[in-house]
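Students often ask why we bother encoding 3D structure as a string. The short answer is that it lets us treat folding as translation between two languages. Here is a chain of 339 residues written in the first language.
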Amino acid sequence: MTDVQYVEDVLQNGFEQTTIIQPNDYEGKVTTTLIRKLNPKPPGKATLCIHGFNDYFFQTVIAEEFLEQGYNFYALDLRKYGRSQLPNHMPNNVRNLSEYYEDIDDALTIIKEEGNHKIVLYGHSTGGLIVTLYASDRKGRELFDVLVCNSPFYDFNVPWIQKKTVIPIFSFLGRLHPNVSLPVGFSKFYGKSLHKNDFGEWDYNLNWKPHVAPSINAGWVNAIHQGHLKIAHGVTINKPILILHSHKSIYPKHWSDEMFEGDAILNITDIKEKSKRVKALIKEVVGVEGAIHDVVLSRKPVRDTVFKTIFEWLDNYLFVMKHLKKTNDQDCKIKLSEK
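And here it is in the second language, the structure alphabet:
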């Protein structure tokens, strides 16, 4: 890609953005937004951050940490999210998670062309599911070097009987009638634990990330379900992967400070179990005491631990890739640890 033009981003403070025009889809015009903040000293390494469901990039704390560690920072607002929402879009709408691959391909191509030779691909929640599948489907053609997944959405947080009955029914409906609207079922308190207008410390656009997410449709359920089935059947990636999650899930019936101590969105047992189905060159799974769903937005002592874990892991594996010999699947090095 050439002639990429940046303008000042809504975050200001050195953040810039560029709009990438994508081919039209079933809703018409599609765009992706790439956000960046460059390091004053060109480091030749960068991270690309992929957000989750009902989300967009606002987490400047991630950018500042990576910049301090000598990286250029980039983030994507995927199609139909945040900065990339257009009037013709149903927010978050997707029928196959591979629709996002073009967004990621284009972003990584730009990042490479801007002189970054080592790239960390980072995904949170649904973004963690997307980048895991992307890494598996791009084997041998990777434009990144390592993966970091923050509470990846590897399974629906519903009872076992619903996973075996309700989800497959909704998924089948989504193949036939993708636009049928369905309710969203995650905790209404999660957003309140984040936003500074309620109980949190973060400021962000509530139109782009409302406390109560817009209705999903059956097509979205099918896209996610098919992605979950791929994980459950086993995926293989040729790069190191770090998977972070909270040490416990919480199920609040009313507001309490417990919201600051666990994952109110996903079942961390699902994350740990499904992570076993991800085969990688090197894999580490780390549970973080006191972390919330978006572990980097946890209270400061916890997120300090999160970032220490990330950067120690990257120091170990980002720059040793060229020294690792190619191995076949049987000999593939896998490190699985719980902390």
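Translate back mentally: The longest strand covers residues 16-25. Keep this in mind for the problem set.
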